[in-house]
Amino acid sequence: MKRTFQIDNHPEKVNLILSSLRTDNHLSKTFEGTAKNGSLVGFYTNLALINGLVIGYVKVKGQYDSKKGDLKLEIVPSNLFWFVISFAVIVISVLAYKGLKGENMFFIGSFLFAFMALVWTLAFFLEGRSFIRHMHRIVESWL
Asked: pLDDT band for position 127 (50/70/90)?
């Protein structure tokens, strides 16, 4: 479930990315994090731009060396994602068990929670893809 973005031997691009996390019009609204002592940790959500609601975050971790020009970012699921998916699995199990005893409404409820878990997973992949796409946009604008 990890997605990565990497730059090797380009100090100008690394400095551009690090400064763009605060100055870029899009990233300044959607990325919350810190870059200190060669380590970058933060959270990104593109869905926060929709009516100011935060539906989910992706966690961004990385290391950088601005002198050598190396940057490696990893997008991983946040604890919120794992909590929600764990909750959905538990609810799906309980509702499916009740549904197998003959109560159809519980069985339908388990399908609804399974659908919601799929939507949350899809949102995670879209968030990670969006972040990497914006990193590429910043790097390409440098050219």
From this structure: confident
Q: Is the dihedral of CA 69, 74, 79, 84 positive or negative?
A: positive
What is the DSSP secondary structure assignment for residue 141, as one 8-state letter? H
Q: Taking CA 122 as the corner, what is the angle to CA 118 and CA 126, rounded to the nearest 5 degrees? A: 170
pTM reported for the whole predicted model: 0.82
* HSE of 59, CA atoms in CB hemisphere, 13 A: 11
The Cα 93–Cα 88 span in angstroms is 8
Residue 56: DSSP 8-state: -
Is residue 60 scored above 80 in pLDDT? Answer: yes
Find the angle CA(32)-CA(33)-CA(34) to the nearest 5 degrees: 150
